[in-house]
Design a protein that fits this description.
Layout (H helix, E strand, L loop, with lengths): L1 H17 L13 H6 L4 H8 L4 E5 L2 E14 L11 E12 L5 E8 L9 H6 L7
Antiparallel strand pairs: 1-2, 2-3, 3-4
């Protein structure tokens, strides 16, 4: 009886080892602003878009909080309405730099739907390159 139980348990373990599982990895949303500015000089970023509103140390890195891109956009009126409504757009981000003032990462803190897409920050800070 014991030999049968041991044999059955061994067979079950062997069969269990043959089962395959597929791990489903979550899709990581791309960050066009991060892709555009990572490795670039923070001086270049701030010269293009304005100075940061705050900064702090974070374990050997410097984190700059930046806000800008203020823009008022008139949205077309819906059918039957007289005027379009106005949207007030802006962007806020944390720019993380190393000791050499090179951007290591960009974390968007406040974003809104843009004029031509789902992210105003992406439209402002990482516009598509123009074809030559």
């Amino acid at each position: 009886m014991n030999i049968r139980m041991i044999t059955a348990a061994g067979l079950l373990l062997a069969l269990t080892g043959c089962t395959t599982t597929t791990a489903v990895l979550p899709t990581i949303a791309s960050n066009p602003v991060q892709d555009r500015w990572e490795g670039q000089s923070a001086g270049r970023f701030f010269a293009s878009y304005g100075p940061p509103i705050a900064d702090r140390d974070d374990g050997g890195n410097r984190v700059y909080t930046w806000r800008g891109g203020y823009k008022t956009v008139t949205v077309a009126a819906k059918k039957g309405a007289r005027k379009g409504s106005k949207l007030y757009l802006s962007c806020k981000a944390d720019i993380v730099t190393n000791q050499s003032y090179v951007i290591r990462s960009v974390h968007i803190l406040n974003d809104q739907p843009g004029v031509n897409g789902s992210s105003y920050c992406a439209e402002l800070l990482a516009p598509p390159e123009k074809a030559s």
